[in-house]
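Reviewer 2 asked us to include a model.

Predict the structure of this chain.
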Amino acid sequence: MQPIIDFASLLGAARAQPAPQRLLFAFCNRRLHDDHSAAEAARFAAGEGGILQPVLCVDKSVLELDSFAALAEQADSMDNSWQVVFVAAIDDSGSQDADGPIKRMVQTIQTGGDVGRYLAFNRQGQLLQFL
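Predicted model (structure tokens):
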């Protein structure tokens, strides 16, 4: 299997799976938490820190996806405030509902949980790493 280095390789990997795949997306923006300090506000203004807040969630069959640009355009038509999108995949054989996994993904993001199990892309479609 080829490594996932961008959105196109993610689609290729998902399409190569023996079972049909559904991709789950949580589009998030970055903001300051309500009880932030002056130092945190300064870091945020400099482009560092803050928290990620999901603003839009959607699930799509890999057959519904052509490119990151098309996905971003669709997301922008609903909420253009997003800065990063997290992606997960589930089996799309019809036996699993996407609502539960999307809710778990959103909860993980909102609580500052381990987002390392998801792929993340910025608005330009570049793969991100969270350390």
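The mean pLDDT is 91. Residues 7-128 form one domain. We have added this to the supplementary material.
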